[in-house]
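Homework help board

Subject: predicted structure for assignment chain

Our instructor gave us this sequence and asked us to write out the predicted structure in token form, then describe one feature. I got the tokens but I'm not sure how to describe them. Can anyone check?
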Amino acid sequence: MAAAPENSPPRVLIVVAGRHGATREIADAIADVLTGAGLEVDVEDVGGAPDPGGYDAVIVGSAVYYGRWLAPARAFVVARGPSLAGRPVWLFSSGPVGDPPKPEGAPADLDVIRDATGALEHVVFGGRIDRSGLGMRERAVTRVVGAADGDFRDWEEIGSWAAGIADALGAASES
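My token output:
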């Protein structure tokens, strides 16, 4: 798969790692904004080990559990680091829940992920918890840390972030 020809819109790969669908829904919302801006977008699960080589830009997102990105997402960015470093990369994490959001701050492994990807930016979006869909261990952890049930994703914030990426890629493709 080759990058977009000179007169074609930029091609963007969104790679996502999650467990219960909330992070994938964020990726799909980002894809909708980018597609609406005229970009060609593919959303792939990290488990499929997508090759970023044929894309002009890459967005990688992971759910955050126990303060870290999911292991398949970390493995993807380390394995694909050389290919990612040659193009614009944006990162997003999803997971904080509650008001105020918990946990606060960036994932503990963010420096390793940034170093591997050469990312331009990282943002943390709120997550969603529905205890009825969680396993026993996950329910126990959410209870211990006091995580609230609910959907804490800010769709306007997600859309604005995606629009900024579309603008950056539009500016890059015009130069």
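Reply (TA_rk): Your tokens look well-formed. For the description, you could write something like this. Strands lie at 11-17, 40-45, 57-65, 68-69, 89-94, 121-125, 128-129, 150-151. That's the kind of observation they're looking for.
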